[in-house]
Structures are given as structure tokens and as C-alpha cells.
Design a protein that fits this description.
The N terminus is likely disordered. Helix 2 packs across helix 7 and helix 7 packs across helix 8. A five-stranded parallel beta sheet has the order 3-2-1-4-5, sandwiched between helices. By secondary structure, the protein is α/β, with parallel strands linked by helices.
């Protein structure tokens, strides 16, 4: 007896929206979503950030991953300022990240992840997706309040209350944060095992015009520490002025 067309047709992959910044963490989250069998729509933001080189990095990462759907949203968070990434404020350099510093650093962009996830939520609805991937991390990070597990859980609850898909749909929204409990070294080792080319990424908050990393900001320090602990060479290009500090 011949199989019915339904039983012989390949199962359609579930859709997922993946936030891709061009940095190390989001590149790894993208690779995990692909590994786990999702049909990905990548979402990147040009929000007036001083490290706009990350947008080109995001394009490289998405292309290398073989993802054809890549939305770049244009928003202007410089209207509000309040951060060294969106206002004329110096980016902190050479901070001791080993200290228990309870103060949220000036590189925190007010409500950034809430804004980003709201856009991702809208895109998920129109792309018939109930899955959003975000590369936040709550261990080796700069202390941002919108990277914590309780924040992600609260936004997921809100998303299921605030959308048609959440109210009428059979599958609830899920925000995947596969890196949230990993160290930077563990993230790098995982991404390397998945074939992520970290030479395509940029982490620096204050890169030179051609995308060369400073080697001294929080993001550079965390990245360098992670590669050292992973025992893998960091493929990022660092400025000559920051080499002595970065290495």
C-alpha cells in the first residue's frame, strides 16, 4: 500500500527569530538554533550605537550560517542617550571586572533588551514563530539588569499575555537563552564545536573606524578572558595601543 502524501512529506521546521548583534554570544546562539532544527529569521538592530561595526559583523555571521532571512531594524536610541554606547560619554577602559561591583556600568543602554525583544515578538507573530533566541549571559557579563534569568522569564510571560498568538495560539511563546548559565569560555568551546567562525564577530564597545578592537573595554576584556580560559586563540584584531593590555 503506497504511503499517503502527508506521511511521506518532510516535516516542516519550526520557525525561530534569532537576535544577532554581530558579537560572540549571538553568533553562538544562532548556531544553536540552527543545530536544533529551527528555520531562522535573523534580527539585527542599528540603534545609533557607537560600535556600528557590529552590524557588518552580524551580516557576515548570518551569511556564513546560511540564513537567507535577515531583518535589520532601524531605531534611534540616541534620542534618549544615557549610555556610553548611544551618547557622547567615554567608554570605560581597563576596569577590574574581578571585583564585586554592584553598580550598573555606563555601557548599559536603558531598556535595550526590552525594546529589542518587543521587536522580536512582533516579528515572531508575523513569521508564525513561537520561538525567540537571545544570546544573553548571566555569568561572564557586564552586570546588565536585562540579562538576568528572572527578566527573561518575566518578558516571556508578558509576551504570552500581550499577543494574539499567545492568547489564541496552541503553542506558547518561548524565549530561548541557551547561553545564560555558561561562562564565556564554555560559550566559545560550544560555538567552536558547532563550527562558528569567531573571526567574523566583533565584541568591542569602542572599536576603531575599521573595526579593530580596543582590547581594553569590558567587552574586550571578557572576550579575551574567555578565549584564554578556553585555550583557543582569539581571532579578533586588536589595536596596537591596546595590545599590551589585551594580551
Amino acid at each position: 500500500m503506497a504511503p499517503s502524501p502527508l506521511s511521506s512529506s518532510p516535516q516542516r521546521k519550526p520557525n525561530a527569530v534569532v537576535l544577532v548583534s554581530g558579537g560572540l554570544d549571538s553568533a553562538t546562539a544562532l548556531a544553536i538554533a540552527i543545530r536544533d532544527g529551527f528555520a531562522v529569521t535573523a534580527l539585527t538592530f542599528r540603534y545609533g550605537q557607537r560600535h556600528a561595526a557590529e552590524i557588518e559583523a552580524a551580516k557576515r555571521v548570518v551569511r556564513a550560517a546560511g540564513v537567507s532571512r535577515h531583518q535589520i531594524a532601524e531605531i534611534d536610541l540616541t534620542l534618549f542617550g544615557g549610555s556610553a554606547l548611544t551618547a557622547d560619554l567615554p567608554v570605560p577602559k581597563d576596569r577590574d571586572l574581578g571585583q564585586n561591583d554592584t553598580e550598573i556600568p555606563i555601557t548599559y543602554v536603558p531598556a535595550r533588551n526590552t525594546i529589542f525583544l518587543s521587536y522580536a515578538l512582533a516579528l515572531a507573530e508575523v513569521s508564525e514563530s513561537t520561538n525567540i533566541f537571545l544570546g544573553v549571559n548571566a555569568l561572564d557579563y557586564s552586570g546588565y539588569p536585562d540579562c538576568r534569568p528572572e527578566y527573561i522569564a518575566a518578558f516571556e510571560r508578558m509576551g504570552n499575555l500581550a499577543t494574539r498568538a499567545g492568547v489564541e495560539g496552541s503553542d506558547p511563546l518561548r524565549i530561548h537563552t541557551p547561553l545564560i548559565s555558561l561562562t564565556k569560555a564554555e560559550i566559545i568551546l560550544l560555538g567552536t564545536s558547532l563550527g562558528v567562525d569567531y573571526g567574523l564577530t566583533i565584541s568591542c564597545y569602542d572599536p576603531e573606524g575599521d573595526g579593530i578592537a580596543c582590547g581594553r573595554c569590558d567587552a574586550c576584556q571578557l572576550r579575551l578572558k574567555g578565549f584564554r580560559k578556553a585555550g583557543i586563540a582569539d581571532p579578533t584584531r586588536y589595536s596596537a595601543a591596546g595590545v599590551s593590555t589585551a594580551r
